[in-house]
Amino acid sequence: MLATGSVILDRGLYFTKTSGMRSYCVSFRVPGEVLEGTFLSVDGPTRSIRPVSAADGPADTAQLVVGGNGHPVGRSDSEAAAVADLIAWTTEHFPGAEETHRWSAQDYESHNQIPFVGALPRGLGAIRFATGYAKWGLSNAPAAALRLTAEIIGVPWRERSGWMNTIGTRLTIPADLAKGAVEGAKVAAAATSGWVEAESRKVPVPAPDEGEGVVANRAGLPVGVSTVDGVTRAVSAVCTHLGGVLAWNDAECTWDCPLHASRFAPDGRRIEGPALEDLKELPRSGRAG
To answer: Which residues are CB-contacts of 282 (< 8 A; sequence separation ≥ 6)?
Structure first.
């Protein structure tokens, strides 16, 4: 059973049928009473607001969680700026709000927002998976689990609830194909621009400031150089999945792939698939070995 966000086996090419999205949340102490209920904006950029009650945990003052500013993984001018924008928006609309915590999430969306649930192609019925919850994991994940459980224990098709058959049956329509083509074009553009940009900057490069990272070219290969917690490191900046050039995430100090949303720590350790291997750590100067 594969429940790995993005499917870590390339059978069925589901990494091309879903898009990895990054979004942000910040919690605040707010004076006075907070809004009752949860709200989601209908315009962009997206804003979601959720009050935190005493039942959610100990709090000496009212709490508010504000989220939004989602974007495809690895395709942002500055993730830190996205968080700062959420904070600025909140303090404008909720005067006196004081930040307490911040975090982020990674979600996967199919082109028509319906999850993929079922048997993996070429798995002889022994491998099942679920992905593409489109940020509705609290409902779609349990639904997927119930559907897959029914399959595994052999509940007959006609005895399953109707919704189980619905989420397990996908009909490709022209609109889905069009959305897939648009996303494919964006992936191709990101692949090309990443290599071109890496070619434009040669090593050696100055050590980046704390929390920053740059991609440069060494002997024809992109190298990612970053400084985190006072340590400057160099790693291969080529994703171990399909060779996309990685981008630096300045909010979380990670190397993110703009093609299929794999993510890596500053030292090259894999954080998120579909990549299965770590990045190669390199010397800070000299030829890549």
So the answer is: 218, 223, 234, 235, 236, 288, 289
Same domain, 186 and 133: no
Q: What single letter denotes the amino acid at residue 66?
A: V
Q: Are residues 59 and 82 in the same domain?
A: yes
Q: Is residue 140 domain-resident? A: yes
Q: What is the pLDDT of residues 41-60, one digit of tens each?
A: 998 888 999 998 766 666 66
Q: Which residues, 6+ apart, have CB-to-CB distance to 92 below 8 Å?
A: none
Q: Does 223 fall in a domain?
A: yes
- Domain extent at residue 144: 116-172
Does residue 67 sit in the same domain as residue 82?
Answer: yes
141-148: Cβ within 8 A, 24+ apart: 143/115, 143/117, 143/167, 144/115, 144/117, 147/117, 147/118, 148/1, 148/117, 148/118
Neighbouring-strand partners of residue 270: 264
Q: Give the separation between CA 258 and CA 190, rounded to whole angstroms.
A: 6
Is residue 30 a part of any domain in this protein?
yes
177 and 263 share a domain?
A: yes
Per-residue pLDDT of 99-143, as tens digits, reads 999 999 999 998 888 888 988 888 888 899 999 998 888 899 999
Read off the pTM: 0.84
Cα 289 vs. chain centroid, distance in angstroms?
Answer: 31
